[in-house]
Amino acid sequence: MGGGALLPMDTKMDFAEIWTNYVQDGTMVFVFLAHASARGARRKTINSNGRNFMLEKVFKLRENHTNVKTEIMAGITTFMTMAYILAVNPSVLSAAGMDPNAILIATSLSAFIGTALMALLANYPFALAPGMGLNAYFAYTVVLKMGYTWQMALMAVFAEGIIFIILSLTNVREALFNAIPTTLKSAVSVGIGLFIAFVGLQNAKLIVNSDSTLLTYQSFKGETFHSVGVGAILALIGVLIIAIMLVKQVKGAILYGIVITWVLGILCELCGVYIPDAEAGMYSVIPTSFVSFDFSALGQTFGQVFKVDFAGLNVLDFFAVMFAFLFVDLFDTLGTLIGVASKADMLDENGRLPRIKGALLADAIATSAGAVLGTSTTTTYVESASGVTEGGRTGLTAMTTGVLFLLAVIFSPLFLTIPSFATAPALIVVGFYMLGAVAKIDFDDPSDAIPAFLTIVAMPLAYSISEGIAIGVISWTLLNLITGKAKEKKISPLMYVLTVLFILKYVLL
């Protein structure tokens, strides 16, 4: 290329000078392209740095030894393992006479609100959505069995949320969290790991009901082989895929495992190997549409909580229902926070969780907001552990999950096709990771080890985090009290109160 220096990026030249120095010797195009490219790159760098600075300021990424990419990948993973609630919650609550389309929208919005609040108030990677178990209690017990209208049941959920807000602001829930001994907190983490793995095995249809032994392994020889059987095999392949990538230290292994298993399912359906069977709970994994813009259905449930007919209301029954929601939500949330925070090494040397007030307040506000939208109790999800396993450590993980739940209002047809056999491997692997906390339990001290063991086995066998905590608290307090170790273990007065309340719960409810 001929003479003439390249145009300095910050030099201003008039048109004549540019023509004389550059156009005549053929360098004009190159100079302009280089100049534009450099300016564009600087703008992109400035914008990128600005965004990163904002995210760093809000979520303290460096302080938590993480980065934007890891947090977003973790948030997507958490969402993928939770997305089933978008299909299951409308199915359960519609039994109470509620509009399923309205419930789907309410589920998405309440999950977004709760998870975004968790991100902003506590900066933790925990996600929220309407809770399984609590939705079944809402529909089948409170409405169908006890005869309440679903509007009245929503009022009980709303009232529970208000009480939770008060308890969170007055530090009562934080005190309950701190009162639980470190040994039981480790046991809760292990118990949740087994519980998550058990849920994953069930979702994969690898473990099924049995009239003779309660549970048994899936048979691959029956009429449902091309639906349930193939789904179970794909789930096993998914576990293997994730395990291989974890051994190879691939970042995002769990998320990739979910997507690859889903793609394998699509290929199997296209080839006729996998055949959907609605009666067996196995549906098409091929999206038929991607978006839906009909939000009018939400009007069927939004604000109905305030349109309650109190005539003939049995006050004692109402408070019993509200207390049942309160009890399960309280200890499910505490258990989940203990388990997931323990997995992420977020607990301090005294077993306490910093910023727990913000986390509990987010959970409480989301519960009342969910009731207004038209869904049962919104609570913190154990599936958050999948995002933590992927490296999520801050509220950016939660915010990513929350935004995806918001987008699910529009992209619900796509998200609803994610099969359970694709997400089940993630739950199974996360369960494995959470078992590591068992090393923190002192098995040489039976007064700690036996209650810890009971806590661990109770969660998967009773299919309830709160039941595991209840059995652990009762057994730990009574065993140490009866054997004269109360002073040595420095049992908190709140542990005595909890023990009495748990016993009364089993006697009266």
Automatic annotation (TrEMBL):
Keywords: Membrane, Transmembrane, Transmembrane helix, Transport. It comes from the Bacteria. It is found in: Endomembrane system. Its main location: membrane. It is a multi-pass membrane protein. Pfam families: Xan_ur_permease. Belongs to the nucleobase:cation symporter-2 (NCS2) (TC 2.A.40) family. Azg-like subfamily. This is Permease. It comes from Subdoligranulum variabile DSM 15176.
